[in-house]
């Protein structure tokens, strides 16, 4: 049945408009989010995901714990102004790009021509620049399918926007399934060669947003190597084995177990803020398990699967309690973690890393799934 025919105008105390025809079917609801829209995806299991078309931001992910108690596990805000005005610009829940992560000194060269980007992270470029994809208003269209509800977000980044060449047409879709999976698909085309590395920047705390630190969370990362960095968090170009280092998460361990060890890489990152080289078992584009996290207290589990070659594990090192989220509780130091599926940082300047250059006639396409459960 076409979406148009399912549109019901419902009046309620919340002024909510609901798309759908039966309570048992997948549906998408939408409400005013100040001048922006806030879309709600919900499945029969009770999992709820809220997304705004400002920055393609995931504002909320509500999932059950082992006892069936629902809790919001995504750091974020209730008002769009808070996203716009947040100190330190933490990128809560946003889609970041045109290039997620860092580019050294904000420069790269394609076919002999050097491009200069904004320097917004020390002497380097971070997450697309001053006005990246996290700070623009996307076009949004609710989606529905057999057993899932979703949202399609599109944005056209103009040639030389933030210094990047090419008119880039980008589409991101979020799909919530009946098995508590949030599937994120990325698509892009360009009319000039340009680097593209788009990722999702949600901060998670599986105990609940604002519920202390994530240091007792048990993390597994499916990676035998990581990319060590210099003091500016730019990769050196080396692929270093994790064995014998604090970066060995091949078997689950508490995030806090080794974070305080005397280690140069941990000093540079003020903790974990590093790209891990995922074990793709010889199939570089395969959908594979990248990471698994469990909160022992609540029993909530997050699995991340992706087609990407890398994942940035960030342990909330710059959170310091100044930011207060939806619950009004402060987001304390290491009060959330990010698992950003990606190509490697600074790849345009690193010839030995997998290429991030998208050419005319090609399609950029990646998929990442965040699957929630409890045990």
TrEMBL record:
It comes from Novipirellula caenicola. Pathway: Carbohydrate metabolism; hexose metabolism. It comes from the Bacteria. Its EC number is 5.1.3.3. Belongs to the aldose epimerase family. It catalyses: alpha-D-glucose = beta-D-glucose. The keyword Isomerase applies. It is an enzyme of class 5 (isomerase). Keywords: Carbohydrate metabolism, Isomerase, Signal. Residues 1-26 form the signal peptide. NCBIfam families: PRK11055.1 (NF008277). The gene is mro_1. This is Aldose 1-epimerase.
């Amino acid at each position: 049945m076409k979406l148009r025919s399912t549109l019901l105008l419902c009046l309620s105390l919340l002024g909510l408009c609901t798309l759908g025809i039966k309570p048992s079917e997948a549906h998408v609801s939408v409400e005013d989010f100040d001048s922006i829209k806030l879309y709600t995806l919900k499945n029969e299991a009770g999992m709820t995901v809220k997304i705004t078309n400002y920055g393609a931001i995931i504002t909320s992910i509500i999932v059950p714990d082992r006892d069936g108690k629902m809790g919001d596990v995504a750091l974020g805000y209730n008002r769009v102004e808070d996203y716009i005005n947040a100190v330190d610009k933490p990128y809560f829940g946003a889609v970041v790009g045109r290039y997620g992560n860092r580019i050294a000194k904000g420069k790269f060269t394609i076919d002999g021509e050097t491009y200069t980007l904004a320097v917004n992270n020390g002497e380097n470029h971070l997450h697309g620049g001053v006005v990246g994809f996290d700070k623009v208003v996307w076009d949004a269209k609710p989606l529905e399918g057999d057993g899932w509800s979703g949202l399609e977000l599109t944005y056209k980044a103009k040639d030389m926007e933030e210094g990047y060449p090419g008119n880039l047409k980008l589409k991101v879709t979020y799909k919530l399934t009946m098995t508590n999976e949030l599937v994120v698909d990325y698509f892009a085309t360009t009319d000039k060669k340009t680097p593209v590395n788009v990722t999702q920047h949600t901060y998670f705390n599986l105990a609940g947003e604002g519920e202390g630190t994530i240091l007792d969370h048990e993390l597994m990362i499916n990676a035998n190597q990581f990319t060590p960095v210099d003091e500016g968090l730019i990769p050196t170009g080396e692929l270093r084995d994790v064995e014998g280092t604090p970066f060995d998460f091949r078997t689950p361990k508490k995030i806090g177990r080794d974070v305080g060890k005397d280690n140069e890489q941990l000093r540079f990152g003020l903790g974990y803020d590093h790209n891990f080289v995922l074990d793709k078992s010889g199939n570089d584009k395969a959908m594979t398990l990248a990471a698994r996290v469990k909160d022992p207290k609540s029993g909530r589990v997050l699995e991340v699967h992706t087609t990407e070659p890398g994942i940035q594990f960030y342990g909330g090192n710059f959170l310091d309690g100044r930011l207060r989220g939806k619950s009004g509780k402060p987001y304390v130091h290491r009060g959330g973690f990010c698992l950003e599926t990606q190509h490697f940082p600074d790849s345009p300047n690193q010839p030995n890393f997998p290429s991030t250059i998208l050419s005319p006639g090609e399609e950029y396409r990646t998929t990442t799934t965040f699957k929630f459960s409890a045990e």
